[in-house]
Design brief:
Number of domains: 2
Strand content: 5-15%
Largest sheet: 7 strands, mixed
Length: about 375
């Protein structure tokens, strides 16, 4: 890769001073707050993170508070952001800082990358923004901006990505490394966009080889996307009086979260009724299909059919399940994949509680 032109630095910083986004995690250089924001922003839009960032910090205002919190409380605060493994890694990293670094977040890229959930980009972002280290923070925006500037046509993975990191570090200014990295992020997000880049608004258009060659739209070259695995499930909302059963996922995808019991495969109402009877020797009462949803993960797709039913033997089929009231549903971390089930469960339990109260009043 050809060296990057250091002449891009000043116009980029000038543009950032006028057009940079005013984001809550840019209010100060607190490394803990920057760390939280960078973990939240992984594979998540800024607009989405804005709805969670301040709330999360209200619950866990310091590194010590996060490290000492119950995992269930952390997952509940993260509920709706998705990619829950990030929350677990963030808390594990906080505990690691308390134990191995005496409660002080390390300042170097190497030490930062020793923390749970911290990769090369996140380490570079924290080191440059919080500690003013000349470290590159190469996210998707940076890859796009510099691929177009240098007209770099290789697929930026592995050794080529390391080459890009080194080229960027060579031009990072001594006095404003964090602002430089944030300027690149904002330019990629606001101007040098994946589709229809607004080259006429770019402060670097006169130095962009991709624009000069008419190839900016086609860069960077991206790896071929792997096809997602399709998985089908029947999701069972098993009610008994004022409770519904949920299971805590103990491994794999969504580990640590609470889900309604799931049966792999596609089922009709009659097939689920037979399945339930075969495993409990009880015919489920009030069995009803209440809807279908699709949830898309990074590498797989869940096609789910939700069924409601009444039974006091659900624990026989799902021995690890826990009965929960409507109030308890709000106190446990349930992924957005279960949103339809949560709505149906809350409606059912409200109706049950209402009819119960009316019956008591009538008596």
């Amino acid at each position: 890769m050809q060296p990057l032109d250091p002449k891009i630095v000043l116009p980029l910083l000038d543009w950032y001073a006028c057009h940079g986004r005013k984001l809550p995690w840019r209010r100060d250089q607190d490394p803990y707050r920057i760390w939280v924001s960078e973990i939240m922003l992984q594979q998540t839009r800024v607009e989405t993170v804005l709805n969670y960032y301040d709330r999360f910090l209200e619950s866990f205002p310091t590194l010590e508070a996060l490290a000492g919190a119950p995992e269930e409380k952390v997952m509940l605060a993260w509920q709706g952001l998705g990619y829950y493994r990030r929350a677990k890694g963030l808390q594990e990293g906080a505990r690691q800082v308390m134990q191995e670094f005496h409660g002080r977040i390390p300042r170097t890229r190497k030490e930062l990358m020793s923390l749970h959930g911290v990769g090369s980009y996140t380490a570079g972002a924290i080191a440059s923004i919080a500690f003013q280290k000349r470290e590159a923070a190469v996210d998707g925006n940076a890859v796009r901006v510099f691929s177009r500037l240098a007209c770099f046509e290789h697929c930026l993975e592995g050794a080529y990505r390391k080459e890009l990191e080194k080229a960027i570090e060579d031009i990072i200014p001594e006095d404003h490394p964090g602002q430089f990295n944030q300027a690149v992020m904002d330019l990629g997000s606001m101007v040098c966009t994946p589709v229809h880049p607004r080259c006429s608004e770019c402060p670097l258009q006169g130095m962009c080889l991709g624009k000069q060659n008419g190839t900016a739209q086609n860069l960077p070259r991206l790896p071929e996307k792997k096809s997602k695995t399709l998985e089908e499930y029947a999701v069972l909302l098993i009610f008994h009086q004022n409770t519904v059963l949920l299971e805590k996922k103990t491994d794999g995808l969504l580990k640590g979260l609470w889900l309604f019991p799931m049966v792999p495969g596609h089922y009709t109402e009659n097939e689920i009724s037979s399945y339930y009877y075969d495993h409990t020797l009880e015919s489920p009462r009030g069995l009803l299909c209440c809807g279908h949803t699709r949830h898309i993960f990074t590498h797989r797709i869940w096609e789910m059919t939700f069924f409601t039913l009444e039974s006091h033997l659900g624990g026989r089929l799902f021995p690890g399940a826990c009965p929960m009231t409507a109030d308890m549903l709000e106190e446990h971390a349930i992924p957005s994949a279960m949103a339809l089930g949560v709505r149906e469960a809350q409606q059912y339990l409200r109706r049950w509680n209402g009819s119960r109260e009316n019956a008591i009043l009538y008596i």
